[in-house]
Write a structure and sequence with these properties.
Blueprint: H1 7-14, E1 29-35, E2 42-49, E3 55-63, H2 66-79, H3 84-88, H4 92-99, H5 106-145
The protein binds FE2/S2 (inorganic) cluster.
Length: 158
């Protein structure tokens, strides 16, 4: 890494935390995959969310510059133990400040902000689909119980 970078960046760049992947088909995992239009770098960030809505595990893989790697590494440490709401509020300016990124590297921290938001969105989408699946499962059961009667409309309250 070039001279002039703050030690926080160098630390996260040289020994990035939480590198790796989570199984993306798990129901409690959200995957964010984003790219930076400015340079073409790509970041994948995944969260695992426990039953109380807390981020219990985070992993990332970044194909990008040192600042992007440092930003994603920082982000994984920052969001662990937070609720989705809290994690979704983290701004790239906070990351840039913590890592003392120069202005020309601001878009690298933006990638980490985009990635966590995208992971949260993916997780929520997955959950809502799952809930819908459970609901339609419930309707099926209801229909089979009402034998001989055609239930054409959805169950009230669905
Ligand atoms: Fe592309 Fe940093 S130069 S993310």
């Amino acid at each position: 890494l070039a001279r002039g970078y703050h030690e926080n960046v160098i630390s996260h760049y040289e020994s990035p935390r939480n590198v790796g992947s989570l199984p993306k088909h798990d129901a409690d995992v959200g995957t964010g995959l984003v790219g930076a239009p400015a340079c073409g770098d790509v970041m994948k960030l995944q969260i695992r969310v426990d039953e109380s809505g807390i981020i219990s595990d985070v992993k990332f893989k970044t194909f990008g510059c040192g600042s992007a790697i440092a930003s994603s590494s920082y982000m994984t440490e920052r969001v662990k133990g937070l609720t989705l709401e809290e994690a979704g509020k983290i701004k790239n300016t906070e990351i840039a400040k913590e890592l003392c990124l120069p202005p020309v590297k601001l878009h690298c921290s933006m990638l980490a902000e985009d990635a966590i938001r995208s992971a949260i969105r993916d997780y929520r989408l997955k959950r809502s689909k799952l809930t819908e699946g459970q609901k339609s499962g419930f309707i099926d059961v209801t229909q089979s119980v009402i034998s001989g009667e055609t239930v054409a409309t959805a169950h009230p309250g669905m």
